[in-house]
Write a structure and sequence with these properties.
Layout lengths: L1 H29 L9 E5 L9 E5 L7 E11 L7 E7 L13 E2 L2 E3 L5 E9 L9 E8 L4 E3 L6 E7 L9 H6 L6 H11 L6 H29 L22
Parallel strand pairs: 1-9, 2-10
Antiparallel strand pairs: 1-3, 3-7, 4-6, 4-8, 5-7, 8-10
């Protein structure tokens, strides 16, 4: 009798298992995955190192009547085979000091097969920039192609002037240009290299050898001036080394 009951229990367990499998199969047939319809998100590209949510532009050493400021953009999503427009808006608060006639924001486009692209802003060279630094505070805007990205990368500040706008005298300046920064050292850097900044993004473009070439251009100018003006060598006009000679790295 014990053997018969054990056999019946096993048969019931098999039947129960079969019913469970049948329900699972029916459920799988009726269940369909939801379509993935989420749009890509657009943000300003702050770079892969320390966040850089601003850029500066100076007409110092430039003769063109219109300057072009390049703002890096990034999408969180997949590239497509078509160009996709994106939009930004100006935040008119105390940070923005530029008027509408001071700039032209060109139509933004993430080109086909790209996840990174550039927003171009044209700024005319005017007399008021001799004494002013204009600021434009931007925010990404959602449209039919893009959602806003993470809030930490939705904002960007652009500044421009005819006078020197010295950026942070960071590690690449100190390594390849001069150990100390000042307005005069920065002016010479801009005039000899054509650049307005020298941060990690710039170093990636030029590399070690290119950075040394830039440093030598800066150094050659300092040495040539000092040789021709031994009683009036180039010194820092402000900063922590004010009054001391500008010493190039190369």
């Amino acid at each position: 009798m014990v053997e018969i009951k054990t056999f019946d229990m096993k048969k019931n367990q098999i039947r129960l298992l079969g019913i469970i499998v049948l329900f699972l199969m029916v459920g799988c047939e009726k269940s369909e995955p939801l379509a993935f319809n989420s749009k890509s998100a657009i943000t300003f590209d702050y770079g892969r190192g320390a966040p850089v949510n601003s850029t500066t532009f100076s007409f110092l050493g430039k003769t063109n009547p219109v300057g072009v400021i390049k703002v890096p953009m990034y999408i969180n999503g997949f590239p497509t085979k078509e160009d996709r427009p994106f939009e930004v808006e100006v935040i008119t608060d105390s940070i923005t000091t530029a008027s509408e006639g001071d700039y032209v924001i060109k139509p933004g486009v993430i080109h086909a097969e790209r996840v990174q692209d550039t927003l171009f802003i044209e700024v005319p060279k005017t007399a008021k920039l001799d004494n002013e630094v204009l600021h434009l505070y931007l925010r990404v805007k959602a449209n039919s192609d893009f959602d806003k990205g993470i809030i930490e990368r939705q904002f960007y500040k652009v500044s421009w002037s005819n006078k020197a706008i010295m950026p942070t005298w960071g590690v690449y300046f100190r390594t390849f240009i001069s150990s100390a920064g000042s307005t005069r050292a920065y002016r010479i850097f801009v005039e000899t290299t054509g650049l307005t900044n020298f941060a990690a993004a710039d170093f990636r473009i030029y590399g070690q050898a290119g950075a040394e070439v830039l440093g030598k251009k800066f150094g050659d100018y300092i040495r040539a001036w000092n040789a021709a003006n031994p009683q009036n060598v180039l010194t820092h006009d402000d900063g922590t080394q004010m009054g001391k000679p500008i010493v190039p790295r190369y």
